[in-house]
Each structure stands twice: as structure tokens, then as C-alpha cells.
Amino acid sequence: MIVRHMSIEEPTTKSEMWYDWLEYRIRRFMIIECVFFVMFVFLISKSFSISDEIQRTHEMMYQMQLKIDSIENRLSSRHYMKTENTESISGESQQEISRLREMNEKLENEMKAASIESIMSHRQSALPSDNLNSIPPNSTTSSREIFNAASMVAGASIVDKLSSHTVSAQTGGYIRSGEETYVLLDRKELPLYKAWCSDESKPRLTINLAKYVKPISVSYQHTKWNGLIPDDAPRIYDVVNCLDNNCKKWDVLVSNCEYKSSGYSISKQEQTCLIQSNRSMMPVNTVQFRFRENYGNKNRTCAYLVRVYGERTEPPEDRKAIERKEEERESTCSWISWQYNNFRILYNARNKTCPVLYENNCCIECPECCMECTMTTSFSDSMQGFLLFIIVLGTLSLIFSGYVQLCKHLQ
Q1: Could you list the residue ranges that cross the membrane (predicted)?
Q2: What is the DSSP code string of 48-71?
Q3: What are the pLDDT tens digits along the chain (411 aa)?
Q4: Burial of residue 163 (number of CB atoms within 10 Å: 0-12, 13-18, 19+)
Q5: In angstroms, rounded to a whole number, what is the distance separating the alpha carbons of residues 42 and 383?
Q6: 20 to 30 Å CA-CA from 186: which of 244, 310, 357, 376?
Q7: How far is CA 37 from CA 44, 75, 168, in A?
Q8: Where are the domains of the chain?
């Protein structure tokens, strides 16, 4: 019996070493098969998405065609009716129709003018009418954005720890949670007992405004009264700007502001106090209403609605943070724009959605991105990103493994 011993020849040259290494890697991991499989799955998903888009496009075209046909039918029927009516009308009737048309045009012009006047008067009524003429002449309402910064809808809130103890407006006793915030709910009608009330002799109401503002005026409005103001209504109050978190340091905005019982109509019961011009340039975020006197009620004082009118402004201490945020936004938008122009696969997988673009305000740097954006990332875009990740990971793995094998052979 003959026994043959098999011998394994080891590669001697570098080319043979690289050849053996590549052959081993290909047989071991089947990289090409994996890549082809991923590409095959991607192509199938892409074909499904394209077919769905084609079907939706056909449906939209069909709906548009139906609408166009209905519009054409209505136009043709109107034209036919108009032609018949015109032929049957005599010369005197045509003159009468022309006269009626002229009258109709005049009425329409008058209605338009009246509507424009009503709109302008409605815009001017955003501030009390007795206060509009008191605004400094060097500033115009069209160039300023004046709003009620003490509105709960805009984001204002009561600072409970810096405000007086509250009681029920109806019974003077226990108050349900949340009722005290009616004083910040900016509304036209003020129902009875929907107010912020306190049993202290000189109550204080502290408010975190919705935004930093340059204050222009403050106002108070009580529930409807006729002839005699309710005895629980505030009569004299001050408003201060809190300079620290505990309002121990403060600056007076208005003082001795009086809610009067005469000189105001029943339908216009909001009464305003202007803030001095030298104070109106200070950014304000927290104010405190200090009610010094009411109309005779010794048990409680009730405030139904307070307002703080002002212009939006930025807090001085946050300007550096705003500049830093703007630099980060510009850097992010530049990176997104570069991806859109040079690396579309990465852009589609990460930054294609409209929320990302509009949140960073990138439409200036890349207007094409905003025109083509979608609300969510599609399945095909996700597959492109996954395929890119697999390719990059495989390439790095090959490079690292090759480096390790080469180091072993050289040793």
C-alpha cells in the first residue's frame, strides 16, 4: 500500500499572497452576492414606488379631466342661455340692463370702500381708541408689531409664588385650580365670576409675559357694569418691571393708574395707562400688577382682564446665543446644500424632509431643496442610505482586514 503525503505550497511572492487573500475573502463572505442582493431589493422597491406614483398621477389626471369637462359643460350652457336671452331682448330692455349694471357697479364700489374702512377701523381697535392718539409721533403702527404680551393664548402665565393668595370670585372661599388664569384670557365678553380674586388688602399679580417686549401701555377691563362699578373692581394700581427672579428689585412702569367710573362708554370698558417714553425702550419679561385700592369691598379684590401692550424685542442677554445659533444654522444649511449638489444619496437619506429644511430656515441657501422636499423619508431613500452604509462598512472592513493580514504575512 502506497501512502502519498500531500504538501501545501505556501506563496512566496507578494502577488501570490494578495491573490490568495482576495480569493479567501471572496469565498468567505460572498461580498458580491450580498451587494447584488441588496441592489436587487432596492430595484424592486423602487419599481413599486414608481408604479404607485404613476397610478396616483393617472388618478389625479382623471379627476382633473372630469373637473375640466364639467367646467366646459357649464360654460357652454351659460353661453347658450346668454345667447338666447340676448336675441330675445329688445332695444329698450338692453338699455335698462345697462343702466342696472352701472348701478350694480356703483354699489359694489361703495361696498368695497365700506369694507376697507371697516377693516382699517378693526385694525386700529387692537389698541384702545383713547390711546392711539397718544402714541409718540415718530413711530407708526404700520412699522411696529404691537400685541398683548400678557395673553395666555400667546404664552403668558401667572407666577404663583410671587402673587397674592387667591379666592373664589363667587363665594370668596376655595378656588378651583386654573380659575385664576381667566385674568390672562384675552376675550371680548367677560362673564361674571370668571376672574382672579384675592382676599389681601393690597394684592399683587405677577405675570411672565409671552415674549420680551418694549412696553407701550397697560390696561384693565372689568366685567360689564352700568353706571356703578362693582365694589370688588380695582380702582388704583401700579405696574412694575421685575428685574430679578423674586421681584425684590423692580422698576416702575406706571403708577397711580386709575380705573374710572365716568368718561367711558359701557361698550368700551377697557381703560389704558401709557408708559413713559424713557421706560418703553427697556425689554420687559416679567411684570407685577400692584392693586392698591378697590371700590369698597373689604373681603376681596377681583381682576377680570389685564393687558400689557408692547413691541416684540430680543432679550439683551441672549443676543450672543442668538448669533451663535444663527452661525450653527448657516453651517447646517451649507452642509445640506453641499449634500444636495454633490452627494444626493446622503441628502435623500437624511435631510430631504421639509421639517428639517424649514426648521433650520434653509430655503435661502438651497431653494431647490425646499421646492423638492417631502414630509417624510420614502422607503427607497431609506434603502439608498442603508445601501450606502453597507458599502462604506464593507469597504472599511476590507481595508482593515487587508491591513491586518498584510502585517501578519510581513512578520
Answers
A1: 26-44, 385-406
A2: HHHHHHHHHHHHHHHHHHHHHHHH
A3: 444 444 555 656 777 777 777 666 666 656 666 777 777 777 777 766 776 677 777 677 767 777 777 777 777 766 656 555 555 555 556 666 676 667 666 665 565 555 445 434 443 443 443 443 334 434 444 446 889 999 999 999 999 999 999 998 887 777 766 678 899 999 888 888 899 999 999 999 999 999 999 999 999 999 988 878 899 999 999 999 998 889 999 999 999 999 987 655 554 688 999 998 765 467 899 999 999 999 999 999 999 999 999 999 877 665 667 778 888 888 888 888 888 888 776 677 665 677 778 888 888 888 888 887 777 665 665 666 666 667 767 777 777 776 777 776 666
A4: buried
A5: 6
A6: 244
A7: 11, 57, 72
A8: 92-124, 132-313, 320-410
Q: Give one DSSP letter per residue of 143-207, joined into a string.
A: GS-EEETT-TTTT-EE-GGGS--EE-TTTSS---TTGGGGGG---S---TT-SEEE-SSS-EEEE
Instruction: Decide: 164 and 205 in contact? Cβ < 8 Å.
Output: yes
Question: Residue 391: which H helix or E strand, with range?
Answer: helix 379-410
CATH number of 132-313: 2.60.120.260
